[in-house]
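2024-03-11 09:14:02 DEBUG pipeline.ingest accepted 1 chain
2024-03-11 09:14:02 DEBUG pipeline.ingest length=165
2024-03-11 09:14:03 DEBUG pipeline.predict start
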Amino acid sequence: MISRTGNSSASRFAVSGERLVSFLRKPQTANRSPNHGFTLIEVMVAVTVLVVGIVFIYESFFFSMDLFGYYSDYLRVATWADEKVWHIQDDIRRYGFLAQIEKRGKVVKNNKNFYWDAACSLIDESPDMDLYKVELKLSWQIGTRKLRLKRTTYATYKYDEDRNT
């Protein structure tokens, strides 16, 4: 311990520095044994936190794998669906209500079955043009889940100028 023999600022600093060092030192208690370990409750809480973290990681992993499977199938069939809709629109533009449109079928891409249904309906009829609504619905199965994709568009059929109606 430093003795103070005056009111100089150096002696005040020395005393306050000693207090700071004694404050930062670990307190000595008589009740603590020299074997410092974890209690059973602390271990159980730590294990519970780890288990909950691992469960969340596995859940997110399986969710992302399921989502990856869906988008993988979606990308396999999306271009085909766009092309099919384009063909139906083209047939309507050429032939109007006389267009021969397939109503349903099956597409196989990478050993996976995709089933489709097409529907075409007249929405508006005017003297020079007809408006049709075209819907294409695709469905496929992953495990026990049945997934669907739907494309909707519109097509017009313009009558020739020499139409006699």
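2024-03-11 09:14:41 DEBUG pipeline.report The CA atoms of residues 8 and 14 lie 10 Å apart.
2024-03-11 09:14:41 DEBUG pipeline.predict end
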